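Late entry, evening session. Most of the bench is empty. Finally got around to the prediction I had been postponing all week. Sequence below, unchanged from the version circulated by S.P.
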Amino acid sequence: MPRNSQQLATLQRTVIQCERCPRLVDWREKVAREKVARFSEWEYWGKPVPSFGDPNARLLIVGLAPAAHGGNRTGRMFTGDRSGDWLYRALHRFGFANQAESSSGDDGLQLKDCYISASARCAPPFNKLLPEELRNCRPYLLKEIELLTNVRTVIALGNVAFDTVVDSFKALGRTSLQKRPAFGHGNQYNLNDRQVLICSFHPSQQNTFTGKLTEKMFNAVFEKAMKQIK
């Protein structure tokens, strides 16, 4: 097993035990206890959701945070919600996932050449994170960036993820960007001489139901990513 694989696994075990943000701890556990009618038979995960994927990945995807009844229920990023339906369809289409569905942590999904992380690992109330909560969670992503040495392209899903990625690379001294560039769907920036950042609208229901993000637009982001990692 590659050394970084063991280190990433150790890091994710640490993530699962995290209680740095009392507001998020209270919320994720409340949701797990009270559930919703359609998932009343589920035993919710109700803990921080670890990142996962290929330790040798050339593509890193950074989202916002687990959904209350998605990742917070299933224990896996983008699993069991409509955002995940969009993401894994795209990943399967471009060869990064062995299947196009992600319904539970034991559904057989495997990622190839791709790693999925997030700005925060706990489901936040109303999908809104406080600045200090983002700061508290940042060290986990910093360590992942250090360990994922083959990454060539980062896709940021949404404005918060975009800011998180730029700030993280700045904190690590790994970007020549002097100021945070503008977020815009499809925008692409050189983080340094070997890694690029591509922006995408988040595949949330709010964006996909209103047509702000279409499947064609989402696929175009992954087409850009493919060109960068070849």
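Two things to note before I forget:
The CA atoms of residues 60 and 213 lie 20 Å apart.
The mean pLDDT is 97.
Will write this up properly tomorrow.
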